[in-house]
Amino acid sequence: MTPSLPPAAPRKIIHLDMDAFYASLEQRDDPALRGRPLAVGGTRARGVVMAASYEARQFGVRSAMPAATAARLCPELRFVPPRFEVYKEVSGQIREIMAEYTPLIEPVALDEAYLDVTDNLAGLPLASEVARQIRAKILARTQLTASAGISYNKFLAKLASDRRKPNGQYVIPPERGPAFVAGLGVGEFHGIGPATQARLHALGIFTGADLRAQPEALLRQHFGKAGGFYYAIARAEDHRPVRPDRPRKSVGTEMTFAQDLHDLPDLLAALLPVAAKVWAYCQRTGQSGRCVTLKVKYADFQQITRSRTLPAVVFDEAALLRLGQDLLTALLPLPQGVRLLGLSLSTLDGAEATAGPSGQLALF
Q: Is residue 185 part of a domain?
């Protein structure tokens, strides 16, 4: 891919992130759940937490945590099953509010998106005011709160959105960008996970300032193409545009667990929210894929993938989940605990083009 040219003038980018979206929706719709520690997904005995309310987070409950662990941390924790149709419907309402201000919207998930408001439809000079108005409209129409990060590129906007959670916003202007990055630990950088963080630490790189001091050649030597990206973000540079309709060759997501999973029932249950997130994208775009890939990262950070290519596209979420679980079961016996599971669909195609005479998509 040809790298994007730097913009002539600083852009105005908003990263909008709903606050505990799934859990907050459950509390909105059931007054008995408000103010109580709540987990979406799993059960008290098995499964994985998909989302946790802020009341639950005070006890250390986090998404991707085994439900049994969450229940030990918070004996009063209430588990509720996910309602993906409701989540997708409300996500659409939020998207409509964003579209009142800009057509340049890049969804990241049902509860998260980047917006380029450099030239916004409201004619507002300050991106912070655009974010404030969007958040106010979301609250008025959905009774849910959102947080926002505002900056001149996507990398910094994403970092900023975490600074005033929940129900707040934070601005990183161009003159503060390099100093802001320099003061962060590399583990705080979006896109640098525990394995990469450990490799950076082994090189004596602990902060953004340490990272900025490294030659680009050294970073590329150790991290390949990603080394060039690390070199740029250490200088608070990120020229990626907000892409509202970027073509995708694949769609996928992954979940890292707070504690390694060892039991097959827990692992199979952990694929539920992963498959749901992938299928939500397929439904929004009218696309599906013929190649299903499972990604597994073990406790020692060893990573493997297993794929299956079908003669026709996957036709529903249940089929995607079943294929992912089949690929996972085929790995038994597992050599060690699992710290991450991912699922993706590739060889994307429009769903309408592959439907049979009855309109239903065939799996085999």
A: yes
Mode of pairing for the β-strands spanning 169-172 and 146-151: parallel
Where are the extended beta strands (E) located within the chain?
13-18, 38-40, 51-52, 78-80, 105-109, 112-116, 146-151, 169-172, 250-261, 287-298, 303-309, 338-350
Catalytic hit among 85, 106, 112, 352 = 112
- 3-state class (DSSP) for residue 39: strand
Q: How far is CA 39 from CA 46, 81, 210, 276, 280, in A?
A: 13, 9, 38, 17, 20
Alpha helices in 58-126 (DSSP H): 67-73, 84-99
40 and 143 belong to one structural domain: yes
Averaged pLDDT in 10-residue chunks for the chain of 364 residues: 58 97 96 95 77 96 87 95 90 95 91 95 96 98 98 97 95 97 94 88 96 96 92 95 76 87 91 89 79 93 90 86 93 92 83 33 26
In a domain, residue 301? The reply is yes
Which domain does 35 fall in, by range?
Answer: 9-172
In 3-state terms the chain splits into helix, strand, coil percentages (rounded to 5) of 40, 25, 40
Query: In terms of DSSP bridges, do strands 303-309 and 287-298 run parallel, antiparallel, or are they unpaired?
Result: antiparallel
106 among known catalytic residues: no
Query: Do 166 and 31 share a structural domain?
Result: yes
pLDDT in tens, 115-125: 999 999 999 99
Q: Which residues pair with 16 in a beta bridge?
A: 113, 148
Say if residue 203 is in the same domain as residue 335. no
Render pLDDT for 95-115 as a digit per residue (tens, 0 to 9): 999 999 999 999 988 899 999
Residue 35 sits at φ, ψ, to 5 deg, of: 80, 5
Are 217 and 349 within one domain? no
* Whether 329 and 258 share a structural domain: yes
215 and 84 in a common domain:
no
Q: In CATH, what number is assigned to the domain containing residue 102?
A: 3.30.70.270
